[in-house]
Amino acid sequence: MKTSVVRGLAAILFVLTAPVIAQSLRVSPDPLSAGGTANLTYDDATKPGKIIVVTVGGGMPWTVQVVEITLDAAGHGTGTWAVPAAGWNKGYFNAPNVAEQIILIQ
Predict the structure, then answer these.
(1) Which of 5, 9, 39, 84 is 20–30 Å from 77 (CA)?
(2) Do residues 89 and 57 make contact, with C-beta atoms less than 8 angstroms apart?
(3) How many domains does the chain have?
(4) What are 16-46's pLDDT values in tens digits?
């Protein structure tokens, strides 16, 4: 009985102290300027050297554009997206394993 309790506590401690690996997508500036440039930053330490596809949707009619970001050895990468000069009031940014980012375009 004591052995199973100790093993259970050890397993819980391992899970709580294991490094947390998180993916993130950042878009700046916020809000974006029509005709300007959006700077994209993506991090995922589990995908070093991989190419990540970020999709950007919006406009009338609805359009989807693609930005490819190559991650470095640490899983960090940057890219840019040319904000359309007209027809878009928001950009909907999507990348693997992160929540959609909705950014206002002025």
Answers:
(1) 84
(2) no
(3) 1
(4) 434 456 899 999 999 999 999 999 999 999 9
